[in-house]
Amino acid sequence: MIPALMPTYNRADLAFERGEGAWLYTTDGRRFLDFAAGIATCSVGHANPHLVKTIAEQAAKVMHVSNLFRVPQAERLAARLVEATFADSVFFCNSGAEANEGMVKAVRRAQAKNGHPERMRIICFDGAFHGRTLGMLSATGNPTYLDGFGERAPGFDHVPLNNMNALRNAVTAETAGVMLEPVQGESGIKPADKRFLQELRTMCDEFGLYLAFDEVQTGVGRTGKLFAHEWAGVEPDIMSAAKGLGGGFPIGAILAREEIAKHLTPGTHGTTFGGNPLACAAANAVLDIILAPGFLDQVQKRAAFLDGLLDGLIADHPDVFSERRGLGLLIGLRCVPKVGDVMCAAQQQGLLTVSAGDNVLRLVPPLTITEQDCREAADRLRKAAEAIRAATLETAP
Fold first, then answer.
1. How far apart are CA 141 and CA 1, in angstroms?
2. 3 state DSSP class of 40
3. Sign (positive/negative) of CA torsion 68, 101, 5, 363?
4. Would you tell me how many other CB atoms lie within 10 Å of the CB of residue 143?
5. How many CB atoms lie within 10 A of CB 163?
6. SS3 of residue 243 by DSSP
7. Is the pTM here over 0.85, yes or no?
8. Contact status, residue 67 vs residue 297, Cβ threshold 8 Å
């Protein structure tokens, strides 16, 4: 018999009742170091005092009023994001997939209103992941995710990442823009080359295309910059954000230059829950922490410290880990055994991780981790690797 909760996930048999910082505690009293962070979402850790206080205070006042009225919390959040980024205007929604859907709509509408209604196609990249809606499954292009859901939504073309020749060859008179993640997450923590991003910006300017960055996973401090594209010294025309923006509370955002945003006039796009007082209060609290002087520098230092520990782990256990990838605290360890086996072994050692494509173990801890948290994680991964090695020796002929 099917369970009451639809079986769309292969859930681990763990139920957490509380958290503190980088730690989670189960209903049966076990303690886990959380290097999954709700899949790169709990950006400021569990039960962060400032975030908890802000949410509680706002919830006691008003949670939702709809976008038929002004929302001061949203106005403040938008102004802060505009001040901190390339953007001139911001639209709030509820999730990364929604933000990406809206981003594609905005790019197409801006091209149409600028006299190019034929420009409706978006170039995406092999290995991308943009969300689970029908439109974003088509932008993602993964046949496994599309299986059983009918025809693909039209208007998306795919080329290999970091291949400028293939990208230029894919541009046609119907191309509206290019959409990509600065670091591909789901397919195995694969960064776009800095030079490729720089040449991509030049190419979009050359052909009159809009450059759209999906920073749902890479944004809000995850890589040690507020947004990952800053590492390459380029700016998009439009960008999506979500995950870490609310610190665990659902919120997504589309950040855009005026030349795109001005075409999203009343009636062209909308949301019931997006940008409500509670979500925006949470996001403002997260920005209080992440935009504080020195915070992002500290993320970079923690990432470098953790990278050093992980490189030592790889050197000592080449039979389990073959490579480290990523940027900042978006880290991938390519595994030699099946990544699911490594993830389970880590979980048995009290460490929570996430799998990714290309047999990669993903480490995306809260941005507030301490050096001791990093040492604990590396130590637990080392014990997991030793357990895998021992199990392999036992089963060897």
1. 33
2. helix
3. negative
4. 8
5. 14
6. helix
7. yes
8. no
Q: What are phi and psi of 245, to 5 degrees?
A: -60, -35
Count how many residues are written for the chain. 397
Which residue, among 150, 131, 141, 136, has the nearest Cα to 170 in the 3D structure? 141
Q: Which tens digit of pLDDT belongs to each residue from 61-92? A: 999 999 999 999 999 999 999 999 999 999 99
Residues 382/313, Cβ–Cβ less than 8 Å: yes
From 69-83, 137-151, 216-230, 276-290, the region with the lowest mean pLDDT: 137-151
Q: Which two tokens stand for residue 305?
A: 């410290």
* Rounded Cα gap, residues 179 and 271, in angstroms: 22
Distance between CA atoms of residues 23 and 233, nearest Å: 35
The mean pLDDT value for 304-327 works out to 98
The rounded distance, in Å, linking the Cα atoms of 229 and 214 is 10
Which amino acid type is present at position 80?
R
Window from 49-58, 80-89, 136-145 with minimum mean pLDDT: 136-145
Counting residues of the chain whose pLDDT is more than 70, the rounded percentage is 99
